[in-house]
Design a protein that fits this description.
It is built from eleven helices and twelve strands. With 396 residues, the chain is α+β, with helices and mostly antiparallel strands. It folds into three domains: 158 residues, GAF domain (Beta-Lactamase), CATH 3.30.450.40; 59 residues; 157 residues, Histidine kinase-like ATPase, C-terminal domain (Heat Shock Protein 90), CATH 3.30.565.10. The strands form three sheets. A five-stranded antiparallel beta sheet has the order 2-1-5-4-3, with helices on both faces. The chain has a five-stranded mixed beta sheet with strand order 7-9-10-12-11, covered by helices on one side.
Amino acid sequence: MDLVEVLEQINKASLRFLQPLTPEATYRAIIDEAIKLVQADEGYLALAKNNELSIKYAYVPFLGPPKMRRRGFTYTAFSQKKAYVTYAEDFKEVHPELVKAGIQSTIFIPIVNKGKSMGVMNIMSHHRLRKFTQKELSILKLFGSMASLAIHKTQLYSETKTNLEARNLFLSMAAHEFRTPITTISGYAQLLRNKIGEDRLEKRWVEDIYRETLRLTRLIEELLEVNRIHLGHFHYNWQENNLVEVLDKAIEDFIITYPNNQLNYKNTVAKEDANVICDRDKITQVLNNILDNATKFSPKIKKVNIFLKKRGEELVIQIRDYGLGINQQDMNKVFEGFYRGTNNTKEGMGLGLYLSHQIIKEHKGRISIKSKIDKGTTVEICLPKINIDKVWKSHS
């Protein structure tokens, strides 16, 4: 194999590592590709944990499971970060089983990342008339550098996956534990609301308690819904609904929740032309999330504008506020979970827009944001409307 072929083979192997492989698949690919590069027969990959090497993958059909000695060749390559070739005469006394199995030469390649030794790759040859050369050692040293990056990447991916699973489990458990006491507080707050007269100061305190328990309930539901999305348990109840009616209900909820805020609503779509296939509760949740944000970041003296219009085969809802606006550096991150922005000092966990984006995406729609600092923000939601003509044609 000439140098060009070697480089092409190494490049091909590196492309294989760009795929999202599991750690086990990555280790197997490293040994398989290394054996191909130098036309070897066997090999194994040992990685370190607390300076103890353990075999992560071994292709040893002739030799059997390898044994490593603390003062052996593998540990020497690991501790000294040095690659080298050994021959039968070098290991016949300490490893007679290798000679008996027909091993003629071996190459030890330390796996090093950012100066830290991660493990060792060992490649072996059975061919009696052929032994590994310095050229093949150089080939595997070059390949070893790429292998170290692949191992580092898969370890980071594995750690990230473990951390995310732990986070999701914690969020789910915490949300469920919070539910019971908040439900109790909310129940007592409602009882007090009904018993305390309108003209008493305590009435306002109870109203504040009740309002805050509702907010906490929404936050807990958002945590649970994010966890359901991650687990693939976020189910939808698909039905034909009228978007005008859905929007009217969301506006009605807004007026009750924010009686002191102003809202301007303009609809240019005929009710009979505003039917969509959707999960009504989840679309209502999206509208509530966006209206909550618009209110949260706008002064009460500024109106929140809502527009419903038709654009081609889509129904478009625009919600515009004249509040703080969003920094341009945050625009690409607003739909990420738990992202609250650099200029956000308001309460909340940054989940509303993330959930809204996931819901609209499942509805085969689009959600986008335009914003300028101190000028306000416009959120646009586009949903595919039901085309009655097409429905009739498909049934004719």
